Amino acid sequence: MLSYSQTFQNKSAQADIVTGASFKEEGVAAVFSREDNGQVKIKPSTGAAGEVFAGFTVERNVPPEFLPQVETHVASANGTQLFRNPIVGQLGVTGADVEAGPTASEAGKVAIENGKVSYHADDIADGVEFTFTYHFTATIEDARALGGDSWYVNLASAETNRIGYIKGGEIGTTLFDATADWSDPSVMHPSLGANGMLTVGGSGTKLTNLVIKQAPNAGSPFLVVEMK
User: Fold this and answer.
1) What's the rounded Cα separation, in Å, for the pair 151 and 144?
2) How confident is the model over 71-118, as pLDDT tens digits?
């Protein structure tokens, strides 16, 4: 989804959707694709090398499938219960590797089970601070907290198999890879990732026309980028 309080578009367009492709919500990173008849359409990015970025989708204003969360905690003997249970494969911990299970095997690693984080004794003794960035499955209540009862499906857009996309401006989106290290100050440009998400590094096209303006953080878990 898009964070409209952090989104300021100054250029947009519409395009046909690739046959068989689907955009579930707004804020998806879209790429151009040429079909057999030569017509250029758009689809969500896959993270494959060479994809050509189009922009971020609008006109699919439906409740979000997931939402991002960023939390900072100091290692403690009692562990940490995260706000929500992270979606598998969408949990990143700054400065630590993540293990499944109830016990961290060594310092610099955290273990997680059903949203409960456990720390190694050495990290507990040193009072090490960890930042957790993750996605969680959104409920109807979560969606209402963000958008009230204003969510709707743009039927005209759905029926015509066309969708709008933002080509310029500043974008706040939830569609980012939570396992990527967005806190690294040396990272200025994101790359195209799988499932219409932005990521850092990887084999996808590096988007040098996008500048990371705000990394997801505890105060605002959205990724904000400026399109040059």
Assistant:
1) 8
2) 999 999 999 999 999 999 999 999 899 998 889 999 999 999 989 999
Residues 131, 117 contacting (CB under 8 angstroms): no
- What's the rounded Cα separation, in Å, for the pair 169 and 177? 21
Whether residue 23 contacts residue 17, with contact meaning beta carbons closer than 8 Å, is answered with yes
- What is the torsional sign of CA 83, 67, 53, 217? negative
Q: Which two tokens stand for residue 154?
A: 């743009």
Q: What pLDDT, on a 0 to 100 scale, did the predictor assign at position 61?
A: 59
Residue with tokens 């963000």: 146
Confidence of residue 133 (pLDDT cuts 50, 70, 90): very high
The residue to which tokens 């700054």 are assigned? 94
Domain ranges of the chain: 4-64+141-227, 66-137
Can you name the CATH fold of 4-64+141-227?
A: Virus Head Decoration Protein; Chain: A, (2.40.300)
In the DSSP assignment, the letter for residue 86 is: P
